[in-house]
Amino acid sequence: MTDATNDPAATAGPTPDQARRADAADRAAGAPMLAADGTPLKKSLARSLRIQKARALMLVAPLLIFVLVTFIAPIGDMLFRSVENQIVSETLPRTTARIDQWDATSGDAPDEQMFEALFYDLFIAEARKEHTRLGTRLNYEQTGMSSLFRRSGRSLDDISDVYLDQFEDLNEAWDEGRPWAELMGEPDWIADQEEFDAAEAEGRMPAFRVRDEMLELLPRAAATYETFARFAQTEDEDSPLEEEPWGLVHTALYYDLMEADVSGYNGPQAALLKEADAAVAEFETVNFKEGMLAIDKDWGSVETWTTLQMYSPDYTSGYFLNAVDMQKTADGPALRDADERIYGLLFKRTLFMSLVITFSCIALAYPVAYLLSNLPARTANLLMILVLLPFWTSLLVRTSAWKVMLQQQGVINDVLVWLGIVADDSRLVMINNQFGTIVAMTHILLPFMILPMYSVMSTIPPSYVRAAKSLGATNWTAFWRVYFPQSVPGIGAGSILVFILSIGYYITPEIVGGTTGTFISNRIAYHISSSLNWGLAAALGSILLVVVLVLYWAYDRIVGIDNVKLGG
Amino acid sequence: MAQAASTDAFVAFERVQKSYDGETLVVKDLNLSMPKGEFLTMLGPSGSGKTTCLMMLAGFETATYGEIKLDGTSINNIPPHKRGIGMVFQNYALFPHMSIAENLSFPLEVRGMSKSDREKKIKRALDMVQMGAFGGRRPAQLSGGQQQRVALARALVFEPELVLMDEPLGALDKQLRETLQFEITKLAHDLGITVVYVTHDQTEALTMSDRVAVFDDGRIQQLAPPDELYEKPQNSFVAQFIGENNTLQGVVEEINGNSCVVKLDSGDIIDAVPVNVSKKGERTKVSIRPERVEFNKERLKEDAHLLKATVKEFVYMGDIFRTRLSVAGNDDFVIKTRNAPDQRRLRPGEELEIGWLQEDCRALDA
């Protein structure tokens, strides 16, 4: 022993005595606790925990990113489609800009300006082949819209050709691309485009630039021509210098010339323009409204325009209303006619059948799980393999097997007929209805009920039941008051699993459900893959998701999610 | 161990046998009778059949052969819940989904007792184990010792005459165990209940019981009060199992009523009391307790046979010294001496002579 060890200052750290006194002094002074190196203890702790958290996050990161990119984001995008409705305002920008001015309660179709806007929109949409998509979209809301748009698209030329022909008759030059391009385009652009055409180069054409002078002098024609030129460049990859413009441009030019004063114009093709200006006053004209009505009288109906007006905003509740058997009307949302309601019934049926399936799973799985957890490990493992066996068989195979079992010429009916229980001419209908779906899905989802039940039950020590019996409880009381409450977490876990799986089940109801045994998911799949009404499918999916979340919340409130155990 | 159970026995096992697989007997021909109010402990190594006996008494296992009687009537065919036997389990077995009060209420409810009576009894039972303030808690909120107190209260609340305890203190730490040992014993005597207690802890058995039944290999090896068990073991298993014991092997040289001379394998001669030997030439295991070995010759009889010993190891244990010696070819011969002011501390390597009183040395079966 040297003196050094007796001197506290000479040792590496504070002696326990010193440290205790220092701590006591700190606490008395209200000072924060300090770590060994003098940093506040809280900070020190946070730092050490931060590294742990970062490491944990890094371990999860690959899966997290994978799920975010491949699952959450697409699903989010898909669900967004349930309210998105930009197709109307994108396809018919001029019409939707004006449509609020129209009063649906007036009982008349809109005025001439509205039809003019519609004509422009439809003409451009037809050139881009977008009008049929819009027709399909609006057809979800009102039948007949699809054919209306398709028919209108074919016949728009009836109106524009009136002006096109008159301009052509006046001067052949209006029928060619070059004079138009010179009239409307910047000289620089024309030079660039000529160079490009001469080189026969691949790639992007020099983008059309309209002359500002024209935008002021002939606003409609310049804007329409610009649209045409850009469209020709990008979609058709034709040089505007050589392409005859749409009849729409001629139509626009007519209306511009009727209003504009071109006498002061001295730019390119001034002579041509002035000649036309002098002649247009004598032109034969067409009323847009009458023209459109001539193409299809539905344009005169209030319903058509009401639909257009209701679905003109960028976002709509229409899909959701549709998904709950309602529709937009001029007086706000209203229930559909009784014979058109389908989704309420489907949702109710889905919930009801999922509940029936869940309860039949509980009823069948509880005794099995009880037996498994009370058998010696060897036997239990053997039986567990039998329980898991269906897991290792293809879902389709199992479902098809039920089809074979349950059909009218199937195994069960044959046996019943052979036994004389059922007459040959009145075989039981057990497939393609609710019964078949419930039977097949109960069988398929049973392992999801047995496994959590088993894992919870196997953790209940037999001494509880013994204790209950030693305290005087009969077998039933011991089970019901002592064993059963402790197995409830297993039932809860199994029920949540089975219920949530079954509420979104698709394949089995599709195969054995017929018409009365199908689920809402089958309808969603139909809208995704057959009717292509993705908005409605997304709305139905969103509602299903919300229903499940609400049920989960209710379950948490009633049973308590802490009471759910999958094992341990 | 008398075959004929006394007619006033409260609990009686008569020729009870138990087999689980039909090939081996876990309990072989068990005969046991205990009077009312007795605290009897079943002690034995694991697998000795003591817990099986307890479970047969409780009704959770059925006897393969023989009869178990409670208060004179056979209970072989009475289901557990009708036997009216209180039971305390090793893991307490308190129902986790019920509060403490509900746990205690359970045995009263199933007996159809009225609410006010139940509350009275629950309060009394909880006060009895000093847990009166914990009625509203859940078992998981209590410590192990508190849970065991509640389990005890639950087993007693319906006032059974017989209470079975299956290693109730096994999971507790030493200090708590000792406190509860004392409390259980006191409670049992105060209430006058009959207790069958199962443990593998011999200290527990010795300190708590009126009588101890030492189990091995499916049989009761000895059934006796603690002091008799410790001081007068009937065979070498009991001698080995209860307390620390020194064993020397040899052959009986001379036998004369209550004393005998044994020639050890090393050639040394010692005196002993014949217990399990009857004739000359028989092999025997001689058993002597460490604290009865003496190296102070003044305390020995003059004609006592002495043995040479070499000190191998000296361990200071606080209240006692534990010294390991090499005696007659046995290197694990232990002596214990009290830590008294005049006590000698032996040093390893030291050579000495040891001896003992003849009645402390018992010649048992080989």
Written overview of the protein:
- The complex is a heterodimer of chains A (about 575) and B (about 375).
- By secondary structure, chain A is mainly α.
- Among the domains of chain A are: about 160-280, no CATH class; about 345-565, Orthogonal Bundle (MetI-like fold), CATH 1.10.3720.10.
- Chain A has 27 helices and 2 strands.
- A two-stranded antiparallel ribbon of chain A has the order 1-2.
- In chain A, strand 1 (about 325-330) and strand 2 (about 330-335) form a beta hairpin.
- The relative contact order of chain A is 0.08.
- Chain B is α+β, with helices and mostly antiparallel strands and about 375 residues long.
- Chain B folds into 2 domains: about 10-235, P-loop containing nucleotide triphosphate hydrolases (Rossmann fold), CATH 3.40.50; about 245-365, Beta Barrel (OB fold (Dihydrolipoamide Acetyltransferase, E2P)).
- Helices cover about 25% and strands about 35% of the residues of chain B.
- Chain B has helices at about 50-60, 100-110, 115-130, 145-155, 175-190, 200-210, 225-230, 235-240; strands at about 10-20, 25-35, 40-45, 65-70, 75, 85-90, 160-165, 195-200, 210-215, 220-225, 245-255, 260-265, 270-275, 285-290, 305-315, 320-325, 330-340, 350-355, 360-365.
- In chain B, the strands form 4 sheets. A 6-stranded mixed β-sheet of chain B has the order 6-7-8-3-9-10, sandwiched between helices.
- In chain B, helix 3 crosses helix 4 (about 145-155).
- Chain B is elongated.
- At the A-B interface, helix 23 and helix 24 of A face strand 6 of B.
